[in-house]
């Protein structure tokens, strides 16, 4: 029953937004890795990691895999906080932006808010 609840109501919107971010981050990282990897390898690999996390969260939420979704949202939140702090404190470490740079400023801070909403939804449906 819990797994079905994760996919209903606001959960559907959460899955849709995660799906959009999975597509956007995957596309962005694929282009960056294929065309400019030598310019900012750390930033582009972090974008690829973000893409994997978004895909994993999308699939886990859509399938009702509560534990996997919980881990994915937790990793995403940790990533956006750590990368956000480092990108502000040591800007030279990121010569080009990632999805999580400056707490997701390039995406309207959605990368910072999304995992919080995901974790809250997972807690509510637990």
UniProtKB/TrEMBL annotation:
This is Integral membrane protein. It comes from Lentzea xinjiangensis. Keywords: Membrane, Transmembrane, Transmembrane helix. The chain crosses the membrane at residues 40-61, 68-90, 102-122. The keyword Transmembrane helix applies. It comes from the Bacteria. The lineage of its organism: Bacteria, Bacillati, Actinomycetota, Actinomycetes, Pseudonocardiales.
């Amino acid at each position: 029953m819990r797994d079905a609840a994760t996919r209903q109501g606001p959960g559907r919107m959460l899955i849709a937004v995660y799906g959009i971010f999975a597509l956007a981050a995957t596309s962005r990282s694929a282009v960056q890795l294929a065309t400019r990897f030598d310019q900012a390898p750390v930033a582009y690999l972090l974008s690829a990691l973000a893409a994997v996390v978004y895909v994993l969260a999308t699939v886990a939420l859509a399938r009702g895999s509560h534990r996997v979704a919980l881990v994915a949202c937790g990793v995403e939140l940790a990533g956006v906080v750590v990368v956000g702090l480092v990108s502000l404190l040591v800007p030279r470490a990121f010569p080009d932006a990632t999805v999580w740079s400056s707490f997701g400023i390039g995406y309207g801070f959605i990368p910072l808010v999304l995992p919080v909403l995901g974790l809250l939804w997972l807690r509510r449906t637990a």
